[in-house]
Specification:
- The termini are far apart.
- The chain has helices at 2-37, 83-98, 105-179, 190-404, 442-454; strands at 418-424, 430-437, 472-477.
- A hairpin with a 5-residue loop joins strand 1 (418-424) and strand 2 (430-437).
- It has a three-stranded antiparallel beta sheet, with helices on one face.
- The protein contains five helices and three strands.
- It has 481 residues and is mostly helical.
- The radius of gyration is 63 Å and the shape is flat.
- The chain folds into two domains: 2-296; 405-477, Fusion Protein Consisting Of Minor Coat Protein, Glycine Rich Linker, Tola, And A His Tag, Chain: A, Domain 2, CATH 3.30.1150.
- It is 74% helix and 4% strand.
Length: 481
């Protein structure tokens, strides 16, 4: 009896747990089916006719009805529409008409340069905008790729959740089958019934513990699924907002491009009209200037003729007065010149006498200096001859001493000739001997070099002042000498 009473509440709890697990499983299946049934998000791809840096003719663009702009921190500041420039240019037209037209070529060249600079700046601006749009498209594509990765991760997480729920169901079913008591239990002995009761209570405790674990796991999975659903909804909302912003940016860029093209066309037409007006005004002004210049030229010619007549009369009177004054001045100058000539003749005679006396003294001094210089030259020549003789003698002694030490070999040619640069020390010792011109016979060159070293010390004059003549010697040796 007691076993039947304990079995009924156990079955009720097991049935409630199975019902809860089935409900959770159906909830997960519903979310998974609804996620898979959603249509895939479309991608917006711009097909370019050419690279962004190359200018191409603008294609006709279908402009969608404008929507209220959405403020976004990543967007640039709003650009003012080009209508203000058009209205300013329309206001400036009557002012430009009222201004006097200047026809100087320098100003025309400056206008052409300004127009060219404006066109260049507009081209640079268009290229910059194209680059910005390309970067924005690349960022949008990167975001879409990241969102696709997130969706794939969410799908994988849902599959894992489904596998976990299926595993829990299988484990629960196996535990229920193991823990289900037999329908007919007959009490045989009191000990057996007590043991069965104890086992049943233990199984009941384990079942309750397992149910609690299943509930907590199910709750955690449901919370995780809810959080992922929220994240998915937020990501989709963010993608929609960014796509909307990108579409608005594209529409604004296209509107700006159309406005720029329209403004460029208007500026071009305005420039052509201004050029035509300037050419017409320039022709009229040129004709008027030519007429005015012709009249001024005639008046100037007449005025010059009148001034020339007056100047000729005045110059004639002045010439007569000047001639009289010059005559008087010439008479005075002749008198002064005569007096000056007499004084100069007297002074020249005195200077001539003084010059003759100075020349005589100078001649005597020069003769004395020449005589002293000749004596000095003679003494220096005699001294140089004596020194040269002594140097030649000692050089001959050096060469003779070296030749005595040369060991002649039988196969040395008779016309061999070797030249050495020899550097001596004050005691007659050889610092170095360098072969500057070989004889063509290496044996003879080596014999001469050994003879130079063997002849140390070389003979030098006793006067130390003559050593500079022997410090560096250029010696020539030949077998025939």
């Amino acid at each position: 009896m007691s076993t039947i009473v304990h079995a009924k509440p156990y079955k009720l709890r097991a049935g409630a747990l199975a019902l809860a697990v089935h409900c959770a499983f159906f909830v997960l299946l519903y979310f998974g089916a609804s996620w898979k049934a959603e249509p895939p998000q479309g991608m917006v791809v711009d097909i370019w006719d050419s690279l962004p840096g190359i200018e191409t003719a603008p294609l006709p663009v279908k402009v969608e009805p404008s929507k209220p702009p959405i403020e976004h921190p990543k967007l640039n500041k709003p650009v003012a529409p080009p209508k203000a420039d058009i209205t300013l240019s329309e206001k400036k037209r009557p002012q430009e008409k009222s201004k006097p037209i200047k026809t100087e070529p320098k100003q025309q060249v400056e206008k052409v340069n300004v127009q060219a600079e404006q066109k260049r700046q507009e081209k640079l601006k268009i290229q910059t905008e194209q680059k910005i749009l390309a970067e924005q498209r690349a960022q949008a594509e990167q975001k879409i790729i990241e969102e696709q990765k997130v969706r794939a991760e969410n799908e994988r997480a849902r599959a894992e959740q489904a596998n976990i729920v299926a595993k829990i169901r299988r484990n629960l079913k196996a535990e229920l089958e193991k823990a289900e008591p037999s329908k007919v239990i007959e009490p045989i002995k009191s000990a057996a019934s007590l043991k069965a009761d104890f086992e049943l209570a233990e199984k009941k405790r384990l079942q309750e513990k397992f149910q609690e674990a299943v509930k907590s796991e199910t709750k955690r999975q449901i919370e995780k699924t809810d959080a992922q659903s929220k994240l998915k909804a937020q990501a989709e909302h963010k993608i929609e907002a960014e796509q909307k912003i990108e579409a608005e940016q594209k529409a604004q860029a296209e509107q700006r491009a159309l406005a720029k093209q329209k403004a460029q066309a208007e500026r071009k037409a305005e420039a052509e009209r201004k050029a035509e007006i300037e050419q017409k005004a320039e022709a009229e002004q040129k004709a008027e200037i030519e007429q005015k210049a012709e009249a001024e030229r005639k008046a100037e010619i007449e005025q010059k003729a009148e001034i020339e007549r007056k100047m000729q009369a005045k110059q004639k009177a002045l010439a007569e007065k000047k001639e009289q004054a010059e005559e008087k001045e010439r008479a005075k100058q002749r008198a002064r010149a005569e007096q000056k000539l007499l004084a100069e003749q007297k002074e020249l005679a005195e200077q001539k006498a003084q010059a003759e006396q100075r020349a005589k003294v100078e001649q005597e001094r020069v003769r004395a200096e020449q005589k002293a210089q000749a004596e000095q030259e003679r003494m220096r020549a005699a001294q140089a001859a004596a020194i040269g003789k002594e140097v030649s003698e000692y050089k001959a002694k050096i060469i003779a001493k070296i030749r005595r030490n040369i060991v002649m070999l039988p196969d040395i040619p008779y016309n061999a000739r070797a030249e050495f640069d020899v550097t001596l020390l004050p005691g007659g010792m050889v610092l170095n001997a360098i072969l500057v011109k070989p004889s063509g016979n290496a044996a003879y060159d080596s014999a001469v070099e050994r003879a130079i070293k063997k002849a140390e010390p070389l003979p030098l004059p006793p006067d130390a002042a003559l050593f500079n003549n022997f410090r560096e010697l250029h010696l020539k040796f030949s077998p025939k000498e």
